[in-house]
Amino acid sequence: MNLEELKKVAQDFTGVKQEMAAAGMGGPDSIQFINVIRAFREYGYSPSKILNAFAEVEEAREDIKQQKQEQRQVLDIRLEDLGFGDFEKLTQTVAALIMLAQYGIDCDKIISISQNLRQHREERRTLTDAYSGSDNNGGRYGYGYGYGYDNGGQGGQGY
Predict the structure, then answer these.
(1) What is the distance between the alpha carbons of residues 87 and 93, in angstroms, rounded to a whole number?
(2) Is 108 strand, coil or helix?
(3) Which of 20, 90, 110, 156 could share a disulfide with 25, CB 3.0–4.6 Å?
(4) CA distance 47 to 39
(5) What are 86-132's pLDDT values in tens digits?
């Protein structure tokens, strides 16, 4: 082994020792670990190759985890751009739609109800706007109930 390979093995050994300690296992100095290494050698396996393969698997797991996080962020941004909020909000919406479908309310009915509500709100807004300033008395007396307009539209009781 050259110097670089020895450094790599030492780093791997240190990493394995730390991981074993974190998992509550006896470190590489333990009799159990030494017996496992001997068993690998006895059956013709290279312990350093096994440790390297383990390190590659761990690295691949970290890469996959990072990719998932990045994909989730991209998905959340796209969902937000489409007006769905983030993935959690979309998940909740889909769950609600499934529940409504179980009660016989499908997406077409929901869309129809939504359009009716929107139309009703627009009609109310139009009516509210019509009565709040364009009621032919300068907006001074609301709807004009009980008021006479025989004195030039200035309101007051029509006596």
Answers:
(1) 10
(2) helix
(3) 20
(4) 9
(5) 788 888 888 888 888 888 888 788 888 888 888 999 988 888 877 77
